[in-house]
Design a protein that fits this description.
By secondary structure, the protein is of the alpha/beta class. It has one domain: Cobalamin-binding domain (Rossmann fold, 3-Layer(aba) Sandwich), CATH 3.40.50. It is about 45% helix and about 20% strand. The chain has helices spanning about 25-35, 50-60, 75-85, 100-110, 125-140, and strands at about 10-15, 40, 65-70, 95-100, 115. Helix 2 (about 50-60) crosses helix 3 (about 75-85). The two termini are about 15 Å apart.
Length: about 140
């Protein structure tokens, strides 16, 4: 991957995974991230982990924001982390959101998901997590 300039805007991939066809929340996030000054790429519906990794590589994103509402987060979120690892992508923040039980969050964080956000999470909290995380990655 190219070295990311500290001064350019954050480039974020919002990805709807698996067989989850509910994208209203993801589209709200896309708009919020754009309004916060980020460059937003939306995967469209039904993205696979390999497709997400390919988009992340092609677009040289800073963040992958995974959205899933069908309960397959414990399977699919870690698969994205593995897929980007296979491509040698190390300087990307991966966050996830959806209907995720509290007891699943620690396992997802152990699997490489830096932030796990559920329904009702204030948008500024998500944006702050992303901007702080990207800032740390750019200093490495």
């Amino acid at each position: 991957m190219k070295q990311k300039a500290a001064s350019r805007s954050i480039k974020i991939l919002v990805a709807k995974m698996g067989l989850d066809g509910h994208d209203r929340g993801a589209l709200v996030l896309c708009r919020s991230f754009r309004d916060a000054g980020m460059e937003v790429i939306y995967s469209g519906l039904f993205a696979t982990p390999d497709r997400i990794a390919q988009i992340a590589e092609d677009e040289d994103v800073d963040v992958i924001a995974l959205s899933l509402l069908n309960g397959a987060h414990n399977t699919l979120f870690p698969r994205v982390v593995k897929a980007i690892g296979k491509k040698g992508i190390k300087d990307v923040l991966v966050v996830g959101g959806g209907v995720i039980p509290e007891e699943d969050k620690k396992g997802l964080e152990k699997a490489g998901i830096s932030g796990v956000f559920g329904p009702g999470t204030p948008l500024p909290k998500i944006i702050k997590h992303i901007t702080t995380g990207v800032s740390k990655l750019r200093k490495i």
